[in-house]
Amino acid sequence: MERRKAIKSMAASAAGLALSGKFITDKNFEEVMKLKGNINHSVCQWTYGFIPLEELCLFVKKLGLNAIDLLAPKDWPTIKKHGLTCSMCYTNGKISLTEGWNNKTFHPDLIKNFTEAIPLVAAAGYKNLICFSGNKNGMDDETGLRNMTDGIKQIIGLAEKNNVVIHIEVFNSKVDHKDYMADNTKWAIELCKRIGSSNFKILYDIYHMQIDEGDIIRTISDNHQYFGHYHTAGVPGRHEIDESQELNYPAIMRAIAKTGFKGYVAQEFIPTAKENIDKLAALKKAIKICDI
């Protein structure tokens, strides 16, 4: 259920597992949730790829959300139709978590993809665009930093001109993404410093960094100026963020809010329920838990 596998299977599986609007009349989803407004909530589409995007749009509006995370330009017309925004965008090009900016071999394609995507993101009224370091494949951290800095500097001026923020996502390399280079906050912060632009930030994935580092609240409090976006999931297992896992998400959300953060926190857990309606109920519960 890693994201790279889900991206490939999402389109094929969604049509056959549609809810056909059943959730709209379910008693648990009759009224739109009233949120407190201290956290801007979103949800990653790939973890809810078992229903079509059209239905996901209807559901997130029932939860009081105004955004969906990790969508490519082909999906933007659908969410716009429902008055939603894309809180974190993909480019139109190949999405690879392993072949990234740390390797100059991939720079020509990446520069082309991002040069095309940045104006599209801006024209759509969105702001955030994701990128990945890629795997080490024997490369040392310093070489990776130099290579990625050189590559990103070739597009960051365009991002600044269009008011688009490029985000490097940090992953754990212990369980889910073996050999991924940006597997710690220190490396990613050093990358931000070398690029030297407020239009380059870290997508701080709480699930991933709990596995590789821990000390989540202190890290957020001390380094929030480098963080432009957050992802959630339960540890261990990347499942629900309820009482079955080790992280105290209300406390983490309070720490995020205390920094004055006005960006998005996107749910990225994989629901474990068998029935789709119960998977959606898990998302509703997660939003409630995080709505401090």
CATH fold description: TIM Barrel
Shape: globular
The helix/strand series, from N terminus to C terminus, equals HHEHEHEHEHHEHEHHEHEH
Q: Strands of the largest sheet, in order across it?
A: 1-8-7-6-5-4
Beta strands, count: 8
Tell me the major beta sheet.
6 strands, parallel
Distance between the termini: 29 Å
Give the C-alpha Rg.
18 Å
Number of domains: 1
Low-confidence stretches: 7-20
Q: CATH superfamily assignment? A: Divalent-metal-dependent TIM barrel enzymes
CATH architectural name: Alpha-Beta Barrel
Q: Structural class from helices and strands?
A: alpha/beta
Instruction: Please estimate the helix content.
Output: 40-55%
Give the class-level CATH name.
Alpha Beta
By DSSP (H or I, 4+ residues per run), the number of helices equals: 12
Strand content: 5-15%
What number is the mean pLDDT? 92
Describe the structure.
This protein is 40% helix and 13% strand. With 292 residues, it is an alpha/beta fold. The protein has one domain (3-290): TIM Barrel (Alpha-Beta Barrel). The strands form two sheets. The protein has a six-stranded parallel sheet with strand order 1-8-7-6-5-4. Strand 2 (67-71), helix 4 (76-81) and strand 3 (85-89) form a beta-alpha-beta unit. The model is unreliable at 7-20 (pLDDT under 50).
Give the helix/strand layout:
Elements: H1 3-14, H2 22-25, E1 40-43, H3 53-62, E2 67-71, H4 76-81, E3 85-89, H5 107-123, E4 128-131, H6 141-152, H7 156-161, E5 165-169, H8 185-195, E6 200-205, H9 206-212, H10 216-223, E7 227-232, H11 249-258, E8 264-267, H12 276-290
